[in-house]
Amino acid sequence: MPQRIWLSEHKTLVFGAAAATLVIAGGALALGRRLPYPSDPQLAHTCMRLRRVNAWLYAFALSAFATGGVFAFALPWFGAGT
C-alpha cells in the first residue's frame, strides 16, 4: 500500500485536516443543541435520542483522534519502538 508512505510523510497535514473537521463538527453539535425540538412528541423523543448518539459518536471520534495523535507524534518523540 503506497498510500501509507504518503500518509506517514504528511501526518501533520492529515491530523491538521482531521482536527479542523472535528472543530467544525463540534461547532455544529453545539449549534444543534440550541435548536428547538419538534412539536410532535414522538419526533421530539427521536431528536433527543439522536442528539445523545451524536454526542457519544463525537466523543469517540475525539478519543480516536487523541489516540492516533499519541501514536503518530508522542511515542516517536519519546523514542518508543526503537
Question: Can you walk through the features of this model?
Answer:
With 82 residues, the protein is mainly alpha-helical. It has one domain (9-78). Helix content is 83%, strand content 0%. The protein has helices at 3-9, 11-33, 41-78. Helix 2 (11-33) runs antiparallel to helix 3 (41-78).
Short description:
The chain has 82 residues and is mainly alpha-helical. It contains three helices and no strands.
- The best one-word shape is elongated
First CA to last CA: what distance?
Answer: 23 Å
**Number of domain modules:** 1
Average pLDDT score:
91
Total number of β-strand segments?
A: 0
Low-confidence stretches: none
Structural class based on helices, strands and sheet pairing? mainly alpha
C-alpha-based Rg, rounded: 18 Å
Helix content: over 70%
Strand percentage: under 5%
Query: Total helix count?
Result: 3
Run of helices and strands: HHH
